[in-house]
């Protein structure tokens, strides 16, 4: 590493609150700044810092995306298409859309992170994913600074997956995205039990997009720790998808195992259930642990190093694999 006086703390730029440092930090407010950054291909990039785990100091320049902007691309009586800068805060965008009665994002309220991370992860919650409203992703090829636009189809979306996590990983800097939202006759999705219960308790029989958003916010706040209070990156693992035959074998041995069918005939098993069933929920290991209210969330109780959190994640993975023969994949990106 370079001398300590040239190091820059990344603690406030990652929601885990890991006290790692970078060789240099550049705050990016305009895309054109990319042209003036030496050795751009050797840089690391951080948006909202909500989906990363810093396992060590970074002996490279780290670019923090702070670009802003929301503008209208097209509009008619029924729909509006917005172009949104990648550095915008995702939840702030959702609230902006709710305020303006633009429907389509309400089920994804309070997801942490930046807009640029949304297509990378194909973020989703309570029956909706970004792919359902996304029209394009604009990006800059890091090696050449060439501007590229990906259609929805070209993004190769899957469950918490996209081309940006596969063949295009590390090759592009996402500059902005396009989203197409409803202005009237919104398609309200309240199919999840938690949302239905919230609306029923509030005697809401004809829910609006704001009602759905409020429900999702209340549900998430009741289950998930606030990163400002307890460092975390939300769901640490993906929900695994297994073959039906594998699930049938597990069902005989573990009758209480939870599951959801997938469109392709496979079975999705909730990672949170698997982790909780093995006694990890609420268990603390040093300065880290699995959250008491949601086993899927690993937390920093204060002073944890990224390597500690990673070690806990590996232990949980091994535990699940040994018991259920299911490999848990990390949703969080290691840096």
Describe the protein's architecture and organization:
This protein is globular. The protein has helices spanning 90-99, 117-121, 193-201, 209-223, 244-253, 271-277, 306-324; strands spanning 8-9, 21-28, 44-46, 52-53, 58-65, 70-75, 79-85, 124-125, 128-129, 134-141, 147-151, 172-182, 231-235, 241-242, 260-261, 267-268, 284-285, 288-290, 297-300, 333-334. Helix content is 22%, strand content 26%. It has 7 helices and 20 strands. Helix 3 (193-201) packs across helix 4. With 335 residues, it is of the alpha+beta class. It folds into 3 domains: 4-65, 2-Layer Sandwich (Uridine Diphospho-n-acetylenolpyruvylglucosamine Reductase, domain 2), CATH 3.30.43.10; 70-182, Uridine Diphospho-n-acetylenolpyruvylglucosamine Reductase, domain 3 (2-Layer Sandwich); 231-334, UDP-N-acetylenolpyruvoylglucosamine reductase, C-terminal domain (Uridine Diphospho-n-acetylenolpyruvylglucosamine Reductase, domain 1, Alpha-Beta Complex). The strands form 6 sheets. The protein has a 5-stranded antiparallel beta sheet, with no helix packed on it. The chain has a 4-stranded mixed beta sheet with strand order 1-2-5-3, with no helix packed on it.
């Amino acid at each position: 590493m370079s001398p300590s006086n040239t190091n820059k703390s990344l603690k406030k730029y990652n929601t885990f609150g890991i006290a790692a440092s970078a060789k240099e930090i550049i705050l990016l407010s305009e895309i054109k700044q990319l042209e003036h950054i030496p050795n751009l291909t050797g840089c690391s990039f951080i948006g909202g810092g909500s989906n990363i785990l810093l396992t060590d100091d970074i002996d490279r320049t780290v670019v923090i995306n702070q670009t802003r902007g929301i503008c209208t691309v097209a509009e008619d009586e029924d729909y509006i298409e917005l172009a949104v800068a990648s550095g915008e805060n995702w939840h702030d965008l959702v609230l902006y859309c709710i305020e303006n009665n633009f429907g389509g994002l309400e089920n994804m309220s309070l997801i942490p992170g930046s807009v640029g991370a949304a297509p990378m992860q194909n973020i989703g919650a309570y029956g909706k994913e970004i792919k359902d409203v996304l029209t394009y992703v604009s990006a800059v090829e890091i090696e050449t600074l060439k501007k590229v636009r990906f259609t929805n189809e070209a993004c190769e979306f899957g469950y918490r997956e996209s081309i940006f996590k596969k063949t295009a990983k590390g090759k592009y800097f996402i500059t902005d995205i396009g989203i197409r939202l409803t202005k009237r006759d919104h398609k309200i999705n309240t199919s999840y039990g938690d949302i239905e219960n919230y609306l029923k308790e509030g005697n809401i029989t004809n829910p609006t997009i704001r009602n759905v958003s409020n429900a999702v916010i209340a549900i998430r706040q009741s289950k998930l720790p606030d990163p400002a209070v307890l460092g975390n990156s939300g769901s640490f693992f993906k929900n695994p998808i297994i073959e039906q035959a594998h699930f049938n074998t597990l069902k005989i041995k573990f009758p209480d195992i939870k599951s959801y069918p997938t469109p392709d005939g496979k079975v999705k098993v909730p990672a949170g259930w698997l982790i909780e069933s093995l006694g990890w929920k609420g268990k603390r290991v040093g300065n880290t642990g699995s959250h008491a209210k949601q086993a899927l969330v690993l937390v920093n109780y204060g002073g944890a190093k990224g390597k500690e959190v990673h070690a806990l994640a590996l232990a949980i993975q091994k535990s699940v694999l040994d018991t259920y023969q299911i490999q848990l994949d990390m949703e969080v990106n290691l840096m």
